[in-house]
Amino acid sequence: MASIFTKIITGEIPSYKVAEDDQFIAFLDINPNARGHTLCVPKQETNKIFDMQPQQYLELMRFSRRVALAIEKTVPCKRIGMSVIGLEVPHVHVHLIPLNDMKEMTFQHKVKQHENDFISLAKEIANNLE
Ligand code: 5GP
């Protein structure tokens, strides 16, 4: 069965898209640890990151770096944290999280974000991509 992220990639489920190319997509996490929390996802569905082909893994890192720099330009923060978990959604994704405090990396601390803010923030990050 297709993962929830494949459904986002095919457009079956909506998302607040930040970036996309032929191999990857980035969209805002629906339950963010911090404002600007973004997921970078390969379109080819693989469960575990270290099962990816080395070249595709490196391309994912390159794509994630580009998105992270755009987030950092957009959201006031000390730096962008990166995490890979996958216990909830078994489709590779890199979490990019604007950090001001260590608690934002714990996945226990969540922030409420309204629809309008998700929409405008995704656009702002997209506009800051280089
Ligand atoms: P993990 O699999 O790394 O433990 O966590 C999955 C992440 O995906 C969580 O941060 C969760 O909020 C996010 N997530 C789960 N379902 C959706 C969804 O339908 N849309 C979006 N944008 N994010 C989701």
Can you give a write-up of this model?
By secondary structure, this protein is of the alpha+beta class. The chain has one domain: HIT-like (HIT family, subunit A, 2-Layer Sandwich), CATH 3.30.428. Helix content is 31%, strand content 19%. It contains 3 helices and 5 strands. The protein has helices at 4-9, 54-74, 115-127, and strands spanning 17-20, 24-28, 38-42, 79-83, 94-99. Strands 1-2-3-5-4 form a 5-stranded antiparallel β-sheet. α2 crosses α3 (115-127). It is globular. The model has no long low-confidence stretch (mean pLDDT 98). The protein binds guanosine-5'-monophosphate. Guanosine-5'-monophosphate binds next to loops.
Show the helix and strand layout.
Layout: H1 4-9, E1 17-20, E2 24-28, E3 38-42, H2 54-74, E4 79-83, E5 94-99, H3 115-127
Antiparallel strand pairs: 1-2, 2-3, 3-5, 4-5
Helix pairs in contact: 2-3
The structure holds guanosine-5'-monophosphate.
